[in-house]
């Protein structure tokens, strides 16, 4: 079963940690899944931490994490993250190689974070496949494993294997995984909690060549203009692109037209204000670009199946 087809009730994550792992990388990997659970208001993902021998594993910054031993891992799982760091070459023991080869039949997706691709390669998981690794190790990795198609990409995600270049790219990989399992809009909402995708660069000369960059700048502009929404022609003009071209890129990346994405962004900001503040519905309407409370309430009910006041009452402690 491809990773994108994992059933909603089976998104179980195992994280295999090694001494001196990157806490930054761990947080960038797990926090988006935690945020997805928060937004969905249900446990879409669960996770457990393991090490080969169990016990306390300490990050490079001194953060201790209690782990179960590898033999205690559930018989089967959905996603396995490998998270080594310094000294990763010494970790590729016959015992680990055997464990990773066995994991190939037990997990739908195996992910090598940071230098995790090296461990996957030593176990023979990446032969004839595409992969990437931390940029410091890129040349040595490509020379050591000529049978692997080594790419200078921030991450490589296929149906059953994934690799990424480091802590800063781990969040990009995780958001792409969420996008494939749920939707582009849901992934955008998760990313917004970490200000991911908020970069607005209207001078990028490559903007027109990349759908994800264009859509990223467009949605960043949308979030900056929630209170006074632009028309789609105005949005296209600000991005220096033809409106039809803009709509084509949105359909490719989001499977939604830009107007629908704009509306969804505004309504999710409205929901956040409903749940986390005591602002009146009229004030929230103004902040989210609606003419009045009635206009917001109609749109809100259509999107979330309940009006703002009922939603607020249901989520008050």
UniProtKB/TrEMBL annotation:
InterPro entries: Class_I_gatase-like, DJ-1/PfpI, Homeodomain-like_sf, HTH_AraC, HTH_AraC-typ_CS, INH-QAR. Pfam families: DJ-1_PfpI, HTH_18. The keyword Transcription regulation applies. Keywords: DNA-binding, Transcription, Transcription regulation. Signal peptide: none annotated. Residues 216-314 form the HTH araC/xylS-type domain. PROSITE patterns: HTH_ARAC_FAMILY_1, HTH_ARAC_FAMILY_2. This is Helix-turn-helix domain-containing protein. It comes from Roseibium porphyridii.
């Amino acid at each position: 079963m491809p990773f994108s087809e994992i059933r909603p009730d089976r998104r179980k994550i195992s994280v295999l940690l090694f001494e001196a792992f990157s806490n930054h990388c761990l947080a960038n990997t797990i926090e988006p899944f935690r945020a997805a659970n928060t937004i969905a208001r249900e446990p879409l993902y669960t996770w457990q931490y393991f090490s080969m021998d169990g016990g306390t594993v300490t990050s490079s910054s001194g953060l201790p994490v209690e782990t179960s031993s590898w033999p205690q891992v559930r018989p089967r799982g959905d996603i396995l993250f490998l998270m080594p760091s310094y000294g990763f070459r010494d970790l590729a023991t016959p015992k680990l190689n055997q464990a990773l080869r066995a994991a190939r039949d037990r997990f739908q997706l195996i992910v090598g974070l940071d230098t995790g691709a090296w461990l996957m390669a030593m176990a023979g998981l990446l032969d004839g496949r595409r992969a990437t690794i931390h940029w410091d190790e890129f040349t040595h990795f490509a020379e050591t494993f000529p049978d692997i198609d080594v790419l200078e990409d921030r991450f490589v995600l296929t149906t059953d294997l994934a690799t990424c270049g480091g802590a800063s790219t781990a969040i990009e990989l995780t958001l792409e995984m969420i996008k494939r399992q749920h939707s582009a809009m849901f992934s955008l909402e998760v990313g917004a909690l970490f200000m991911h995708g908020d970069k607005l660069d209207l001078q990028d000369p490559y903007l027109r060549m990349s759908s994800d960059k264009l859509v990223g700048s467009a949605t960043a502009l949308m979030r900056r203009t929630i209170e006074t929404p632009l028309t789609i022609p105005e949005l296209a003009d600000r991005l220096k692109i033809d409106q039809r071209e803009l709509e084509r890129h949105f359909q490719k990346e989001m499977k939604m037209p830009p107007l629908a994405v704009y509306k969804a962004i505004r309504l999710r900001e409205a929901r956040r204000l409903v749940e986390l503040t005591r602002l009146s519905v009229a004030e929230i309407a103004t902040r989210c670009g609606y003419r009045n409370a009635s206009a917001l309430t109609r749109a809100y009910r259509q999107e979330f199946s309940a009006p703002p006041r009922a939603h607020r009452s249901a989520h008050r402690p």
